[in-house]
Known about the structure:
- The chain is α+β, with helices and mostly antiparallel strands.
- It has 2 domains: 6-70, Alpha-Beta Plaits (2-Layer Sandwich); 85-245, NADH Oxidase (3-Layer(aba) Sandwich), CATH 3.40.109.10.
- 34% of the residues lie in helices and 15% in strands.
- Strands 5-6-8-7 form a 4-stranded antiparallel sheet, sandwiched between helices.
- Helix 6 crosses helix 9 and helix 6 packs antiparallel against helix 10 (224-230).
- The relative contact order is 0.14.
- Flavin mononucleotide binds next to strand 7 and helix 9.
Amino acid sequence: MSQPHILVDPARCDRDGLCIAECPVAIIAFGPDGLPAGVTDAVERCIGCGHCIAVCPKDALTLAGQAPESLPALEKGLGVSPEAAEQLLRSRRSIRRYKKTPVDRALLLQCIDTARYAPSGMNAQPVHWLVVEGRERMLELAGLTAGALRRLPYFLRFLESWERGEDVILRGAPNLIVAHAERAGFDHTVDAAIALTYFELAAHARGVGTCWAGLFMRAANDSPELNQALGLPEGHRVLCALMAGMPKYGFQRLPPRKAARVRWL
Ligand SMILES: Cc1cc2nc3c(=O)[nH]c(=O)nc-3n(C[C@H](O)[C@H](O)[C@H](O)COP(=O)(O)O)c2cc1C
């Protein structure tokens, strides 16, 4: 007989019910033996978020064959002070002046690895990553973006600069990080935007600069040429994209921002 979707070790479980309380889709309940167990349609309804394994202080629960010991433990001493977190979040800037050399692949992979933990609707984790490397490729994509923008209103100012030889489209960045997903089904644009936001904060923490590639994003799905150059898998579309590279300059202060407009109800 195959192993149940939710398997609880009676020797470890202290019946605290945390796995039941944490499950967002209510597929775990106490069984007649007093131990948590999956309900009958647990497999079909499980979204694989793993909260049940991750919350158990006794490492008592195995989910879909994944034992708690196979998952990284949280390092208690590694907490970030609110002040440090605030500075990291506030000091991220859009970088538009880059060093020429592409970012070390290992560094980019670390940022992508962090971005895997971004939230996604129904834990779909829909994002696939494409990493573009090198100025030659970047200029080719910027040129194709300019071509697509010519067919749209509003972008005249950028196109004039592009035609003067200024890369206002991909800003001289040596890398582009493209989040793409299947076109069919739910629209995963919000999931991709959150994943890239995780990416850019992880990048900032490691000294890598980023900037949202809004013009490229606008053009990407309107341009068959651009799509072809990206070589996305069949049925996929670009959701969001970030330029990346090592910044040429550093910032000394926070820039001004609007005061928060808050209403309590
Ligand atoms: C969705 C989105 C698209 C953007 N597109 C571009 C772009 O195409 N080119 C660019 O230079 N900056 C782009 N930006 C950067 C914004 O101009 C920038 O976030 C804003 O001016 C605030 O500056 P900061 O990011 O340094 O705080 C974009 C930002 C977002 C969120």
